[in-house]
Amino acid sequence: MKIGEPEKFIIDGKRLDGRKPGELRKVKIEVGVLKKADGSAYVEWGGNKVLAACYGPREVHPKHLARADRAILRCTYSMAPFSVTDRKRPGPDRRSIEISKVTRQALEPVVFTNLFPRTAIDVFIEILQAQAGTRCTGIVAASMALADAGIPMRNLVPACAAGKVGGEIVLDLSDVEDNFGEADLPVAIVPQKDEVTLIQMDGNFEKGEFEKAFKLAVEGCMKIYEIQKEALKKRYGGA
Ligand code: UDP
């Protein structure tokens, strides 16, 4: 057993933070929180606190990156030094470069980049506080910032992870579950299109468990999708 590892993850059907296996942490989304960005969003998801800011479509620098037929989408994920218990060294590292790339890949399929040739759409994701699942929180925030900027999109992109802890498949891992659990499966989808734009896996599932975890993660995405739509309605009204 590792230092800090709990003896049990589920006691009397409840997880260590009191949630049921299929329950999400508390999620709060607000859009239009930054005056100087074209679009922005703030997401609190359990102990994660994440800001996203969108700029564009705007001129591309450096110019050689411009594409004649479409806009380029650039996503930058970055963790504040104070976002984690052990101070995070500022600046990009392998993990943040990877998460920036998968975030772009998760969002690109919904953005009508063809409408804005020779431009750039930039999204910056700042993790202010981290408590497991920051890539999903970042994708949700970035998707909301794009929508808030009025960038034409086919849909919003919700994201959510499922995983395995103490032999059980659970939704939306907490930090202890992420650190000591058996598996983590973050997923992002395009609702109504049956399209998966992010799927990564850390750890091991036994036969049949992957399908169960994937289904649970998609259900989590659909719950997040409802919260995303509510946040837009709250800011912009509409039925
Ligand atoms: N984490 C940390 N220091 C780091 C990177 C990550 O403490 O430099 C923590 C943070 O709480 C993060 C968690 O480890 O949410 C899990 O990180 P992972 O790489 O699995 O990505 P995430 O689950 O945040 O998408």
What can you see in these coordinates?
The structure is a single chain. The chain has 239 residues and is α+β, with helices and mostly antiparallel strands. The chain has a single domain, classed as 2-Layer Sandwich (Ribosomal Protein S5, domain 2), CATH 3.30.230.70. Helix content is 26%, strand content 31%. The protein has a five-stranded mixed sheet with strand order 3-4-5-7-6. Strands 8, 9, 10, 11 and 12 form a five-stranded antiparallel sheet that branches. β4 and β5 form a beta hairpin. α1 packs across α2. It starts with 9 loop residues before the first strand and ends with a helix. Uridine-5'-diphosphate (UDP) binds next to α2 and α3.
The gist of it:
The chain is an alpha+beta fold and 239 residues long. It has one domain: Ribosomal Protein S5, domain 2 (2-Layer Sandwich). It is built from four helices and twelve strands; from the N terminus they run ββββββαβαββαβββα.
Number of beta strands: 12
Mean pLDDT: 97
- Indicate the CATH class: Alpha Beta
Biggest beta sheet attributes: 5 strands, mixed
Order of helices and strands: EEEEEEHEHEEHEEEH
CA radius of gyration = 18 Å
Q: CATH superfamily membership, which one?
A: GHMP Kinase, N-terminal domain
Q: Could you say what the CATH architecture is?
A: 2-Layer Sandwich
Low-confidence stretches: none
Total helices: the number is 4
Helicity level, as a percent range? 25-40%
Query: What is the rounded distance between the termini?
Result: 52 Å
How would the global form be characterised? globular
The helix-and-strand class reads: alpha+beta
Indicate the CATH topology.
Answer: Ribosomal Protein S5, domain 2
What's the number of domains? Answer: 1
In percent terms, what proportion of residues is strand?
25-35%
Strand order of the largest sheet: 3-4-5-7-6
List of distinct ligands in this structure: uridine-5'-diphosphate
